[in-house]
User: Fold this.
Amino acid sequence: KQWYQRRVRARNQENIDAWNSLMGEKADVKFMLFYDCDLEVCVSRVLNRRDGRKDDTEEVVQRRVAGYNTSTLPIIEQFREMGKLRTVDASRSVEQVFADTEKLLV
Assistant:
């Protein structure tokens, strides 16, 4: 049996349903990797990124977070309940986050 990584953006229940419909019996999902970051840190990073989008305003970021809380957070909780959630503290430096990610994937 071969093992490989596949990045799937499970942003909402519709994404999960589509994945399960297409791949449910063909793939054994070992875990979801969740980069957990404090809201203030996340907002600050988005507002201060060099290649920011024109709509990277605090108001728009807050709306994106609200959408995330409504659509994506329930998916994360599903994986947590199944015991298939691995979390990395993404509020730290890039090097620290990479090191923790690498440990989870090796």
Remarks:
- The mean pLDDT is 85.
- The beta strands are 32-36, 85-89.
